[in-house]
Amino acid sequence: MCCLSLTGFAADTPAQPAPKPQKTIEERYLDGLDCLKPVDLGCAQAALAMLPPASPYAKILDAQIAATERDDERVLRLLLPLQGNDNLLPQAIASLHATLAQAYENQGNALRAVEQLQLIKTNDQEGLHQRIWRQLKSLPRETLLELRGESQDTQTQGWIDLALAAASKSPATAIDQWRTAYPDHPVSAAFLQQLLVTEPASTTTEQPLGDVALLLPLNESIYETAAAAFHAGLMAARGSSTTDVRVYPTTGNKAEIATIYQKAVAEGAQYVVGPMTREEVTALATSGLKLVPTLALNNADQPNLPENLTTFGLPVEAEVTQVARIARALGMQSALVIASENPLSKRMAQDFLQEWKAQEGTLVAEKSFGADTNLAELKADLGTRNADMIFLAATYDEARLIRPYLDPALPTFSTSHIYDGVAQNPENATLSAIHFVDMPWMVNQDHPDFAPYREAADKLPPGEAQRWFAVGVDAWHILAEKAAGKSLLLPGLSGTLHMEGNSVVRDLPMAQFRAEGVVLENAR
What we know:
Elements: H1 6-12, H2 25-36, H3 41-49, H4 56-68, H5 72-79, H6 90-106, H7 110-117, H8 125-136, H9 141-147, H10 154-166, H11 171-181, H12 189-198, E1 212-216, H13 224-238, E2 245-249, H14 257-266, E3 271-273, H15 278-285, E4 294-296, E5 309-311, H16 316-329, E6 334-340, H17 343-358, E7 362-369, H18 375-382, E8 389-393, H19 396-402, E9 412-414, E10 435-437, H20 440-443, H21 451-457, H22 464-483, E11 489-491, E12 496-500, E13 503-507, E14 510-514, E15 517-520
Parallel strand pairs: 1-2, 1-3, 3-4, 4-5, 6-7, 6-8, 8-9, 9-10
Antiparallel strand pairs: 10-14, 11-12, 12-13, 14-15
């Protein structure tokens, strides 16, 4: 045979192995991530060398290597620009936030560390929450108060407020109120219960105050019920304290308030509570007097208050602002505003519109009603309007009148003025399903921490008298905090109290009228 068969030769030659497929960038990153689990830097560096330097995976792996070397500045420089990149493997996104959190923790920046930790998606939520809690629980109260409002993230703000609640004098009450304020926070009920076991109430006792003067219109018929209720609340909170409390009657006349104030201070008052009317507070704020620490019971008609003058009370604009913010947080975008024709309701409507626009909400229509309004025509007109919600600015009598003419399927929100203070009042049946803000004392009065005040409060009528009683109780505790030189954050009867400038702000829970009466919403 002169030649070999090429076919036969090919058949007898062993087959060449197929080339191995190239690994993807994602797979090479995961290889590097595996190297770091036992902290094998040589292995991780080799994996990094196989990644394109401009790839986000290369930067994340490089940052993780830098983190093992405590090079926090390099970590921040590499990772901060990548935070908005959602087109990454879940493992890479989790590692990015965890590495940033560690860098911030190393730098002592607990706020930014918490912000990063709560962005991590993990099956071990309880473990993640424990790590977040370790960031905050050891921080001094003053530091936590400074952090309030620093973060734009609601969950992070919730963590800070939870740390303050757990460290308060009444953690059970504070945590209960916290849960109402943050109903959608991911922390579990078991975690909150554990806090009550491991974070006992503060043993700090209130220091005796100096002499206190109360500037109250106790003898003026238009104000006397509120003034007497406030006095009863403050004295109930005073209890067995030896602090001298003297009452200086006022008349609501702004021309007289400076003289009354000077008399109280000349007779030894080291703290003043009052006056109660807006005109008197404004007159005191503009009097030019040198003030002792003073807790005024209304707002002033000027933005800049003198040193030592703090405002506290029941300003309607604060409630309206909270309603608007809560409604927006619940996803409401467009609103019908319906107000009665009394001056207070008109003011509520305008305050709501101002805040609603600031929250980028849309106004569908603004309607008013009074004694001469054809309610059937108003109902027909409202039926043509498409909105997500109704804001109802009215008193309880007015609300009962208008409610049957409003769409019951449309979420309706209001303020405490819609509630007469009687949880089981059959006349409130027409208000069913309306949401409103009010103080804890009014919508959760059976809370065990309120027990010391019930006997004194039972002597007062429902409604506004009970609200001013709660303000009186809280006023005493505010004075005690000031006397101790503490920054203010208190779970009070009138709300969760904190300072904004020269004003004590009340964060209020939301309640709802239901068939069984008034029910605190989101209670746990």
